[in-house]
Protein: TetR family transcriptional regulator
Organism: Intrasporangium calvum
Amino acid sequence: MSDEDCGLRERKKRETRLALHRAALDLVEESGFDAVTTDQIAARAGVSSRTLFNYFPNKESAVLGATPADPDEMRALLDARPASEPILRSLRAIVETRLSPTTYDPQLRAQRRRVILSESSLGPALVGNNIRVENILTELVAERLGLDPAESVRPRVTVASALAAVRACIEHQHTGGRGTVEETVDEAFALLEHGFA
Amino acid sequence: MSDEDCGLRERKKRETRLALHRAALDLVEESGFDAVTTDQIAARAGVSSRTLFNYFPNKESAVLGATPADPDEMRALLDARPASEPILRSLRAIVETRLSPTTYDPQLRAQRRRVILSESSLGPALVGNNIRVENILTELVAERLGLDPAESVRPRVTVASALAAVRACIEHQHTGGRGTVEETVDEAFALLEHGFA
DNA sequence: GCGCAATTTTGCAGCGAGTGCAAGAATTGT
DNA sequence: ACAATTCTTGCACTCGCTGCAAAATTGCGC
């Protein structure tokens, strides 16, 4: 996926996109999300402010380097999981992939992770409140469970809870909570799986 | 609470607040959330645009008539629930109270409900993404469970999942899903209680 | 009532996010 | 090298929201 379409045009676009993402991450890490303007990000990336919005729909997405959730891509992710796996576990894997994309170079990934875990303005944009992602996943989960998403809320509630759980764990970090994200996510999904009762 | 402090000043403030809320609801019901500007809301309420933001922190809050989440108030709500009640059930009751405040006159409440269920821009502002509410509830739930919210994620995950579940049910309505909100919320909380496994 | 203090409203000036549009620059295939 | 396509840029603009200081309103002691 990263080597196909190697025209100059496509390569430049990838470079620009990455430059914007890097610039955004750097600036946010330096001064905090709210103190950084989109103009500054564009300037550091060496591109006009208008161009930033050709690549990302908003500031948050630029910082996250968010790729516009593609249904096919997510379907591929889900299909990659064994059919026998409990749906929650598959969901968790998918969400974690979105959280730290494996196509990144490790250093950038680490920085992204650092920023996500320290900037609370980003949580919502990442997993919570991301209606588009929720809708796509709901559709996919319904399919796998053999349910009609218009008939039963179950798929949607499953997805929403999973996303919320991850976001809660990130929030837990923001508020200085104990444990690594991995540990707390473990705990959270155990709760979802076996019930809060 | 609605009769105390009956000075002219306090009464006028309540009137203005209500006027803004009503204006916002009316306009949004007429034209949709995105098509309504804060200036229009203020104008219909007969106050300056600047005044709107003296009463509400943002457009969404004006439409929702959102009262700034008060820790003490929420504690009172929780304390009103029997101590033996499962925490999820208490949470559900609290969230539902926030969803349709009992201090409203029925007609306004109905309108508010209608708007909430038809305007998807509002879901986030109501329950999801409401970090402040989540933090307060997390604290309270931790207390009731006898846990330290910094030690265990459980309280936070419980709260986040409950909020997410309700938001998911509202979203279910938005997307034309079947069933009343009550039914779907029932189903959702049953899942949370007994687990998704 | 009267006048002073506290509070509220308002206008204004301004910032930052985000968009539509049209002109200009770069890249492509031929 | 030329034309078609695509990307970038600048510009003007809307909208949400904020700070500030002046003006209006209300509360209170007399």
In short: Chain B touches chain A through 46 residues (CB under 8 Å). Chain B has two domains: 1-66, 68-197.
